[in-house]
Q: What sequence folds into this?
């Protein structure tokens, strides 16, 4: 049983097919098929059953899946410890979650590993962020989605959304309670799910209840930098987490007549056997 065979087996298991698994880890489908066949022959058990074009793990396959993930995690940890190198951690999540929570995670890791280095990768979706952890392309994901099985998670905090205005916007200087009808006279920039992450059911992609209080959305974007520029220039209002508003140097508005508020619970999702460097987050 070779380590690369276990990696190939996990790719097939996690993507329920040889072709999908091959695309994810950038090897040929034939290589994955041979690795799985060799494992089945060596272990004397069937690891998958085929159903409707998908490969489903057998009971024996589910056992091997858990063991294989642990073996590969131990191998990675052993290499890092033997090399005595500083831990290098890849942290992924939506741009907004990275902007709001990545600094807190980094600070916690640095207290235990001052020489750690980090790579922050914006994911195209929360599902993609979690998949990166499951496929060991990232060590941690910041997400508002429900953490799946085969992972460990820790609640980082709650992100409370606010309507904010940048310098130069006519509502920026208002200190009184602004009626919602007056707020809706102004244009907004709205982020999509790839930027914001999962929000309250029934809300728009950025958490606002447009079904009850429809806005004039002048701009839509999946880029936090584009949103920041539009808000700081005074061109648009935005509905974003409070921490994000602070990073834009935008002031939250006090709004009357709108009972809806969006709050995200953001968690740090790790593999079952966290990588070296993340011990400070799960101890």
A:
């Amino acid at each position: 049983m070779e380590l690369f065979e276990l990696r190939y087996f996990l790719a097939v298991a996690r993507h329920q097919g040889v072709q999908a698994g091959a695309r994810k880890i950038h090897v040929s489908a034939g290589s994955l098929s041979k690795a799985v066949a060799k494992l089945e022959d060596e272990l004397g058990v069937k690891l998958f059953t085929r159903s409707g074009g998908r490969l489903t793990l057998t009971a024996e396959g589910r056992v091997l899946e858990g063991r294989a993930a642990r073996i590969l995690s131990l191998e990675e940890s052993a290499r890092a410890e033997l090399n005595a190198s500083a831990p290098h951690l890849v942290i992924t999540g939506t741009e907004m979650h990275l902007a709001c929570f990545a600094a807190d995670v980094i600070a916690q890791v640095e207290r235990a590993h001052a020489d750690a280095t980090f790579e922050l990768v914006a994911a195209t979706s929360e599902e993609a962020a979690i998949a990166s952890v499951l496929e060991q392309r990232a060590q941690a994901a910041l997400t508002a989605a429900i953490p799946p099985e085969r992972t460990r998670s820790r609640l980082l905090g709650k992100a409370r959304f606010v309507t904010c205005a940048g310098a130069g916007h006519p509502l920026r200087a208002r200190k009184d309670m602004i009626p919602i009808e007056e707020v809706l006279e102004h244009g907004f920039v709205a982020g999509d799910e790839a930027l914001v992450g999962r929000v309250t059911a029934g809300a728009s992609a950025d958490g606002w209840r447009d079904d009850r209080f429809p806005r004039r959305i002048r701009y839509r974007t999946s880029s936090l930098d584009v949103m920041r520029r539009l808000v700081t220039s005074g061109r648009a209002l935005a509905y974003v987490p409070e921490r994000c508003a602070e990073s834009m140097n935008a002031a939250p508005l006090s709004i009357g007549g709108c009972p809806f508020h969006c709050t995200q619970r953001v968690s740090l999702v790790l593999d079952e056997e966290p990588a070296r460097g993340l011990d400070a987050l799960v101890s």
Observations:
- DSSP finds eleven helices and 13 strands in the chain.
- Residues 109 and 278 are 6 Å apart (CA to CA).
